[in-house]
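Supplementary Methods S3. Input chains for the assembly prediction are listed below.
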Amino acid sequence: MKLYLLKNGVNPRRVRIFLAEKKVRLGEDLPVEEFDMESMGHKKPDYLAKNPLGTLPALELDDGTVISESVAICRYFEEMITEPVLMGRGALGAATVEMWNRRMELELLLPTIDAFVHTHPFWVGKRPQIAGWGEARRGQLVARMTWLDGELKDRPFIAGDTYSIADITAQVALLTARGALKLPVPDDHANLARWYAAVSARPTARA
Ligand SMILES: N[C@@H](CCC(=O)N[C@@H](CS)C(=O)NCC(=O)O)C(=O)O
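Predicted structure tokens for the full assembly:
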């Protein structure tokens, strides 16, 4: 088995944190190959033969099967390593976590990535940039932070009483928003700030 990652990649970081929570040690329990945006090994034939989209993360099983998509990789490990539960317990628990994780992807992570790619100098020449779209997505992200602050009024974590993959998706989005977009959690968003401080203090947060 081998895990393919991208240095500083937001989606690869989701899988890193998930695996750290499952106590999987990268490079020891699970071999890793990490690409970077300078050498672009993930756009070369060897990797494209495994994942023609050339995206990361991807997990290659011993029989050659390749699983891409962060959540699918997390699902694989959730089934293989059952504790701690990160994708919900039972029908309602699993559906609730899936609902919140999907919301964190659509409402937080994708606007963050769009704002970053379409407005940040790092992406000049690497991706087509439409500044207006980036600004619009930044505005959506700001609005969604306010929405999430309200949601967190009565519960400690995004999907309920326990830490889950939905928290991981949200925390990598807000880490990127703070670092790349200079858009930290606003001071007057006390619930979101309390949650962000709690998830950032976990030993796995910088995995
Ligand atoms: N939906 C995919 C997105 C994967 C993705 O776009 N990963 C980025 C890194 S965050 C990537 O591979 N970028 C490199 C590229 O597209 O060249 C997932 O959740 O894993």
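The chain is about 50% helix and 5% strand. The chain has two domains: 2-80, 90-200.
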